[in-house]
Request: fold
Amino acid sequence: MKRTLAILLLAAGAGLAQKPAETPVTATPPPTTPPRQGASKTPLPPSVRNLKFPPLKPIPIPQVATFTLPNGMRLFLLEDHELPIINGTARIRTGNLFDPKDKVGLAAMTGTVMRTGGTHSQTGDQLDVALENVAATVESNIGETAGTVSFTALKEDADQVMAIFKDVLTAPEFREDKIELARTQMRSAISRRNDDAHGIEGREFANLVYGKDSPYGWEIEYATLDRIARADLQQFHSRYFFPKNAMLAVRGDFDTAQMKARIEKLFADWTAERPQVPAFPKVEAKPAPGVYLAAKKDVTQTFFAMGHLGGEIRDKDYAALEILSDILGGGFQSRLVQRVRTRMGNAYDISADWEADYDHPGLFEIGGSTKSFSTVETLKAVREEVDRVRTAEVSEAELETAKETALNSLVFAFDTKSKTLGRMLTYEYYGYPRDFIQQYQAALQAVTRADVLRAAKEHLKPEEFTIVAVGNPADFGQPLASLGGPVHNVDLTIAEPKQEAAQADPASLEKGKQILARAQQAAGGADKLAGVRDYVQTLELKVAPPAGALQVKQTNSWIEPNQLRQVSVMPIGTIALYTDGKSGWMVTPRGSGALGGPALTQASGDLFRVYFSMLLSDRIPGRKVNAVGENAVEITDGAGQEAQLIFDPATGLAKAVRYHAVNLAGPPMTVEQTFADYREIGGIKVPYKMGISQGGSPFGEITVSDWKLNAGLKPEELQKRP
Reply:
């Protein structure tokens, strides 16, 4: 940057040196005398404002071959021989709108783990290696109103990759370790969702307009994630992923007839039949007018959204509303940008969008950010511009500029065959005519100034505006109440999952024993579990970046009933400790001493939560096992230790343990440790992977490299200090 600036200065200086400093610089007038003999008579170029262009031609759409396979799946094929590549996308009629209210996040988790969890024949990690070796991809996802599974491959590897694609689509395994990984990642997203003020504004605006009691306004929460089990993912996939509910589009370097035959053969054994999928829930939102404040004290700007429910893309006034929103806030020439940014200097970005959706009403939203002090002033100016566009016709220049912008953007709708096929698939999926883009182009060309005014009067309803402001109210120049009406406070609290309380009555105690007995049987049987007298566990803990980003190698040695030794090798050195639950010692690089205080409390809790001890809690004197719902128990020992052990309803194996841990910086925090990747040792199933979260945020992942059961450990070996 400095070098560039120096060059510019030198160039400027050189130019000035050619003309005396005192010589005034004036514009050269146009010649008023005839050009001298022999001079060029080439006319000056016309002004760009006078250039004339022919009208836009209708958008051509390449022919897409369409078939229905014997199993009912619809197939769309488009040849593209430009590169030796083949791409495919399957679209399934499903979405997170079908999530049960108490398990919001189920569709998203299903879409993720379909791919990461692998298939019956290969794990997700094995698929990663196989696909990387041939520079291919297979991905899966489930959004609001569609599920997709896609692939990309070189032509020569297409058969191998399409086989993987088919397995991910039709036979995902949903392995437990990847379910827990997805759960941890989604919990992490929840924990961070209030970090970004712009994200808060968009989320809260949409949820308020659609209604928080509507599937369109539901949020994924810790509690809803915790209720999701492997069986739920399996059932969700089974319900919605069947041939007659699927559309497959393939583009690339192939012969259409040959590709049809390949796909028909590939999916010949996918013949699942299911009842027809119901329609997505209707939007039944009622206006939520008013001002809503989401207080966030760590920002110096206010992020805001203003608007109400919009419409669908198929609406008759969609073209006029697109032109309207562009004139109001579509670019540098728009009214909002000119007033709020250019003349008032209050905002860097501000826009207006009529965000229509294909199958349900979208949102009309005016959004942006402004200096905290000018929050109310900016919102009032926005409202005034909305009133103005509803009062008088826009100018002819505004109309023509907006129409040209919209029409010219259509050039990019079908500029590649990939977009062509994707758009055709979307039109087919949502029931739009194949020539919809041409219809839309004609509608844009026909929009008049009167149409824009009529659309503004009919569809923009300022009295129904929901206004969301995210910022620090202490810095507002005027109170939000000056906008009129009450100000509603938005609660940004992220609720921790509520642990269901155990009843602690005879019936609950008996049910708790039954739940635990099933878990014991699933793990290999109570007698085999009781036969474990000691173990040595070798593991590696990877602490997540927010918590420190380090790796710890740890060896845990245990002798029943209550002796535990932990040796942790860390970047700072080795830390060793021993406890019998009542006392102990710790050795660190800085010295050694008796184990006490929070360290003893934590070590005693680790001893209480030893895997084999928890599963045999009904046999340990002093412990009580109470049922918590249908698939969890609460274990207490009367000495202050307690934990909830949650089981997978499908397998009966322990899925997670949740407890409160010491927090030196404040009150005890909720810790959850998940269990996955069970393997059998001597007839007993033990977990080889664990995930740890603290306060809802990921803390780390544990990978066990070795379990040695009944290694013949002696107490003096554990008690001896290093």
In short: The first strand starts at residue 65 and ends at 68. The chain has three domains: 65-197+211-266, 290-417+427-489, 506-719. The two ends are 58 Å apart (CA to CA). Confidence is low (pLDDT under 50) at residues 1-40.
